[in-house]
Specification:
6 strands, globular
Length: 172
Amino acid sequence: MTYSAPHTSDDQADRHAEEIQVLLNLPGRERIRSFYNYWQSKRKGSRFPERSDIDPLEITSLLGHVFLADILDETPTDYRYRLVGTDIVEIDGECTGMRLSEMLPDRSLYHNLWQQYDAIRDGRYWLRVETLPHRQKGHLIPYEVLLLPLVDRKGKIVMIFGYAAAGDRRTG
């Protein structure tokens, strides 16, 4: 399941936020819901929270599943991982400081992932639930990812604030 919520107005943002909240309220999604609620609490009446409002010390119990990716002002757009939680590193390998183009240089092969990151750049949210191969162990695992935008003081989307959890949904 992949869910994208485009936002062209505050009313649409509120409506789509409610739709995502319904999905996040399903049993077993307490931690990803906490992440989303934290992001929502930082909006302060704006479409998206500012990067400066995010304090990792406020979400220490979630940090292993959190990542931040800078949106690089290039053509085509690229993304640099600024912070990658330890639980994500265990599944995907260390990528802090790396660009998405270094990790996945064939944009056509990984079109969906690139499209989702570009959607965040354009002001959407993504909730993705899928089965992926575990890079370290080689077997398939369920994986949930929530991608949310962060803005600078001028309101420009400059970063992806993400949550990724692998394993049994009861623990993610």
